[in-house]
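SAMPLE LOG
Freezer: B-3
Tube label: C17
Construct: single chain, 257 aa
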Amino acid sequence: MIIAADHPARGALGAGERAFAMADRGDLLGRLCLALSRPGVDGVLASADVLDDLLLLGALDGKIVIGSMNRGGLAGASFEMDDRFTGYRAEDLDRLGFDAGKLLLRIDHEDAGSLRTMEAAARAVDAMARHRLPVFVEPFLSRREPATGLLRNDLSPEAVVRSIAIASGLGGTSAYTWLKVPVTDDPDAMARVMETSTLPAVLLGGDIKDGDQDATYEKWRRALQLPTVQGLVVGRSLLYPVDGDVAGAVDTAVGLL
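STRUCTURE (predicted):
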C-alpha cells in the first residue's frame, strides 16, 4: 500500500472539484503524514521536494520510498507528450538509499513526443536495472480531445492491454520492472487485461468518478484478486476523499489488501 503524491511537480494540482487542492503544501504534508501513519501503509511515491519535506518531518522512517522520475510533460502543455526526465535519476535513487523509481509512459499515436518519451523510458529502465532497483512503469494510450486539446487517457480494455504490452518490453531487461496500471472502464475485463504480462503490478487510483468512492473501492477489491496484482499506489482519491476523512479512506483501502 503506497500513497502517491507526485502530481504537483507536473503542475497537476487538482483533486475532485478543487482545481488547486494540492497547491497548499502544508495541507498536503499534513494529509501525507496522516496517511503514512495509518496501519498497513507501506510507503510513499513522490517527487524530490515532497520526499525531502517528509524526510525532515520523520515521516519516512521505516517506509518504502519511491522516487518519481519524469515530470517534464506538464499538464496542459503543448509538449505534454514529450515527457522529459526532470526528476530523480537512477543514480540519485541509489545514492539516497531509496527503494524504487516510477515513470509515466503516455503514448499518443498522433504525437511524435511520445517516441522521445518512450526511448527515454527504456533507457531509464536500463539504468534502474544496472542499480538493481525496481522501476514502476505507468503506461497509457492517450489522445487529445479535438474540441479542447486536453489529453485524455484511454481506459478501454483494448487500450490498456496494448499499453501493458508496450511497457513490458521496454529496455534490455524486465527483471526489475513493475507495472502501475489503472482499473479499466469495464472492471469485468481486468482479468483478461492482466493476462497481457507476467510482470508484477500495482493498481493506481486517480480521481473518483462521480464522487462514488464505494464503487471505486469495489473495483479495486476485485482487481486485487488477480494473480499478478500485488497492491495499490493511490494518491488524490485517498488524500482528498469525497467525505474529507483521510484516515477513513486510507484504512478502507488497506482493508482491501
